[in-house]
Fold this protein.
Amino acid sequence: MTPAKREALFRNLAKAIPEPKSELAHTTPFELLVAVVLSAQATDKSVNLATAKLFPVANTPEKLAKLGVEGLEQYIRTIGLYRGKAKNVVALSNILLEQHGGDVPKTREALEALPGVGRKTANVVLNVAFGELTIAVDTHVFRVSNRTGLAPGKDPFEVEQRLIKAVPPEFVQHAHHWLILHGRYTCVARVPKCPECAIRDLCAYPHKTKPKTKAA
């Protein structure tokens, strides 16, 4: 994809999605961190339903550490892999208290050292909470980047590195949100909604779906 097409692609996405932002409900960096950890292999909707009950009770490292693993499980058992996630959230809460004064660290290295926090989660926190120009690659971003030809790669890290080079500077801040939302609602996995796609004319996908024809 040429630089001109990449710029046009993001201009079209920006027009179609004028307010790109995370759909995980949060009000603080810590709430965001917890929500992203809980969202692994789960939907944002399921996480939001759980944190709507959890955060009014425990939304700080101190309160979550005090709640404990079994206590946290009671709030998040509707989320996939909840037992392992509960252990990670309580463990990372204790580490934040012991090593970071209860604050969410602002470096990738410190974030990735926390239990349950990988590169994608660190990128989300750095971008959304602290305004860093990072690009988080989840399944939606990976699919859209490969399917459109924007930044094809064999794994999330390769796609991330290609996106960093490919995305025009003025669009980097919100790039992964545009791609996530586009992949979640339009460029869906099984049958992409090409007829209503804002970037269909720029996309290199060879199997674009066609508009449904009305029966005679």
